[in-house]
Design brief:
It is a single chain. Helix content is 56%, strand content 12%. It is built from 37 helices and 20 strands. The strands form seven sheets. A five-stranded mixed β-sheet has the order 12-11-13-20-14, sandwiched between helices. The chain has a three-stranded antiparallel β-sheet with strand order 3-10-4, with helices on both faces. Strands 8-5-9 form a three-stranded antiparallel β-sheet, with helices on one face. The radius of gyration is 36 Å and the shape is flat. It starts with 5 loop residues before the first helix and ends in a 5-residue tail after the last helix. Keywords: Cell membrane, Membrane, Transmembrane, Transmembrane helix, Transport. It is a multi-pass membrane protein. In the C-terminal section; belongs to the OsmX family. In the N-terminal section; belongs to the binding-protein-dependent transport system permease family.
Length: 873
Amino acid sequence: MPRLELGSWIQSGVDFLRDHFEWLFDFIAKVVQGMYDGVHDVLAAPDPLLLAGILAVLAWWLRGLVPAVLAFAGFALIDSIQQWDEAMETLSLVLVAGAITIVLAVPLGIWASRNRAVSAVLRPVLDFMQTMPAFVYLIPGIFFFGVGVVPGVIATIVFSMPPGVRMTELGIRQVDAELVEAADAFGTTPRRTLLRVQLPLALPTIMAGVNQAIMLALSMVVIAGMVGGGGLGSSVFEAISSVDVALGFEGGIAVVILAMYLDRMTGALNQRVSPLGRRALAKEAAGATGGLKVLRWRPATSVAMVGVVVLALVAGGLNIFGGDDGGQKVTADVGKGRTVNLGYINWDEGVASTYLWKEILEQRGFKPKLQTYDVGALFTGMASGDVDMQTDAWLPATHASYWKQYKNQLEDLGTWYDKTSLEVAVPSYVKGVKTLDDLKGKGGTFKGKIIGIEPGAGEMKLMKDKVLPDYDLNGEYTLVKGSTAGMLSQLERSYAKKEPVAVTLWSPHWAYSKYKLTKLEDPKGAFGKGDGIHAIARKGFSAKEPQIAQWMKDFKLSEKQLTSLEAAIQDAGKGKQQDGVRAWLKQNPGLVDKLAPAGDAGAKKGKQAGAAPRIGYFPWDEDVATTYLWKNVLEKRGYKPSIKQYDVGSMFTGMSAGQIDVEFDGWLPNAQKQYWDRYKKNLVDIGPWYDKTSLEIAVPSYVKDVKSLEDLKGKADMFKGKIIGIEPGTGEMQLLNSKVLKAYGLDKEYQVTNNASPAMLAQLQRSYAKKEPVAVVLWTPHWAYNKYELTKLADPKKAFGANNEIRSLGHKSFPDKFPEFHGWLKNWHMSEQELASLEQSVQEAGKGNVEEGVQKWIDAHPGIVDKMAPVKS
């Protein structure tokens, strides 16, 4: 019988729809995506346990106390196994798909119940929708809407709609005909008969249909994870593709909990929304006694609503006022928070390179989003623009069919790894099998199987279309389709038992390090000459993100680097890929700047590259900021500086003894005069880099009638007899105690407290927040004057002395020991705006992140490294 080209006709019809109704599909995609984003924002905003409490209150209202407790425990379990975010994504998908399904299914069911012709037409259509394998719906979904949330929702709607339509029609048809006739006899219009008689009586059946539609929606949403639908579907898909029992069980148990909750809640909703259900509920409550009555008591709708609103307000408040949970620190804000969608195939080099670039892009200020796909879905998603980039395209051979199909919608960003090969491998204990030719006639040895990987992989297509036919292995061997992880699991089992096994493999792969394997030679060249691993992007990506595109074009990893990166990810364990990447980057310092240079990264090396100056600093804002700035600049010039914190006295003592080479915070000629006078014969004044400084006492501007140091006289009670000081060894503190207080007659009235500078600032912050009077030791420049409204107390008697300059000081050997660095410092100057912005950047980076703050400031000041430390070519 001649072949009926049914599939080709359907393909032509789909092509026609896509080409002529793209505007409609784009509109639908925007509506569905908008609905999903809105629902997900609501569900993802609260703290997990607060939302679990809200869902538990709903369960209490619908079913009672025990179900509420179990619901809370179930959602708490989801949170404890770190599947909460995925569960909320899945719940969002179910709610959106379920709502659209109900809106469409119930009217169709009503129409079918009132018109037998419509019912006759709908029945075979619903049969088709309900019996067609669920996976098939993903194909047109991807074709019309790309990959991601939208095709998953659309496929879910189609798959879950039949029971909603059927049960609505059935419920209305089952309403007693005599009741309908009675309504007609009393002159009721058909519309009022439907709304007041048929729908209320049919509601239990309709709600059963709604329940089934939502359950089917949940099952389909999990399948949609294969095309980037996210949520628990992605967790389950990843577990299947990597044979990860732990992740599979955790994702599966989260699905079960969601399914049970939705099933029980939608099943019980009938009792709250239908007259018959409410009557049955009241009868049940009246018949309960004792403890059973307490367990069966359900709060009134108003009480439940109040509980939900209160919890929602608490959740919203925590979301508004809660702190930032941190995350990857930005070392150079190139991306300014822009999103980049990265897709990857769950192959070792794909996982490794993708998570490496996720880490790098985060450090460069981007917000990468990762999603795993099957090969076909990944290429389709990139062609449609839903995925921006992927790093694991094997060309020109392995992925040739996909590249040929989609190359007009893609950009090749270049090869980052070459010397690859595709092969069939056997354990080295299998004797007499060295080439693919040797497999002929040995099908019994290998049980007639070659263990393959994902059916959509390019290597599998090559095996099927070329390798097996070229070596006449088709009738003798079956190419087993599965997953990469499944293939590796079979290899591990067979290897442990010393059983013969033939598997599809490729180089590079860590399996060759773990096992002794023989790569079967390919004398006929059926696999081709080997591929390069390419980074490819959707069309237009280079124009939108030229910096990333350039980074990818320059991206290269050696075999040693790639295999060690894969090993680090393997060592980190499942679900901790980025931890593995970070551990690997620590072992490869400077690689981020090499792979993704930003600003002055990769600057020229200095003439004394490798020199190791010892730098001291005080815990003062300007000194911390400038010391770490010079550390960064020197490292870019190839120096190896070491830095260490000191108090003022120890600094000058250590520097005069040659234990410290240089420091950048010498306040002269007044603040540190006593130290300079004592040690200057062993020191060198390199020169000032900042002037216009001053020492002072400051008070908040809300403290009235205190404008000068003279105004402090007689107001000790207002300030509790204290002036909040800083480190006792500083020149300013010594000036204050020995000269300033006496000059203004304050030495008997005030006590100057000795603190660290951060402690003084903390006291200022506390007092300022409470609007309490406080007097603190300060100096200019300081970021506190930008953060708070403060009054610098005038010093009419000039007790603090003339203004200082901030100078670089060093040991007397410094100019000869580090002539290049010495020359840079002699010409170094900073403006007030530059210093203030540097200090602010360090403050914003937070405690322990000074280097990140400095790097961000450098990136915001292009050319600053060359200005501070010029190197002649």
